[in-house]
Amino acid sequence: xxxxxxxxxxxxxxxxxxxxxxxxxxxxxxxxxxxxxxxxxxxxxxxxxxxxxxxxxxxxxxxxxxxxxxxxxxxxxxxxxxxxxxxxxxxxxxxxxxxxxxxxxxxxxxxxxxxxxxxxxxxxxxxxxxxxxxxxxxxxxxxxxxxxxxxxxxxxxxxxxxxxxxxxxxxxxxxxxxxxxxxxxxxxxxxxxxxxxxxxxxxxxxxxxxxxxxxxxxxxxxxxxxxxxxxxxxxxxxxxxxxxxxxxxxxxxxxxxxxxxxxxxxxxxxxxxxxxxxxxxxxxxxxxxxxxxxxxxxxxxxxxxxxxxxxxxxxxxxxxxxxxxxxxxxxxxxxxxxx
Length: 339
What we know:
The protein is of the alpha/beta class. It contains eleven helices and eleven strands. It is extended and about 95 Å long.
């Protein structure tokens, strides 16, 4: 460790540091430690300060400039921080959904012209889609008859069973305001009469080139007339062969007007009906002839002229409906009575 002694020097006034004059006595100063401190302080300054570190006075002058440089650095850092904060604030404002401007939505426009297509129903389709008043009353009679078929249980003393009367039924099942049993008895009589008339239908012939139509018609007629035998044919000559067999007297004949064949050939059901009319005169049998057509408006007149008693539009009416079956039985009865 080196020690040095020197006389006091005149005080140098620095704008940033106030120096206090030393006493007249000589003082020993540890230069090496001061130099070490100066080096540590100078290490944060410009590299040129390392060259003047040997001079104590210059080193002191250089150390006095440290606060100023630090202040400048603080200003630069604060300005950088302020710039960063402003950038972050701008970025946050961009990410904020309130400040984000949505693109303008396209305006929707519709064409002012409206095209209306009028829909026309065929004349026969209304009867096939909607129930008439007579059919609804028939449904009511069937409901009442189902109620009458069940037994009423009596719990008086011991278990007894007795037939249910109309007075025990719900008032909504009544046919009149009196809710008497006469209406029920009349309904049962009508049902028995219809059943006896349905049993008189023994043979039914269906002629159609479409398998689906044949199966649906056969199923419906078999349900409506359980004791009848249903025969099917796809061509008019096949149906004619069945009619010419001795003993095959059909009670109901159903034929399609437009019978399509192979190689774009076609036959008409009206021609087959004329042949049946000729056989009816020779063999003395009176079938009820029903003409079918998907274009009943165009083919109705032709079918009527050929001898069709009833004309149905495809799809045909539901044969589950008792009113439809009753209409067929009444037409068959009128046909036989006229002949």
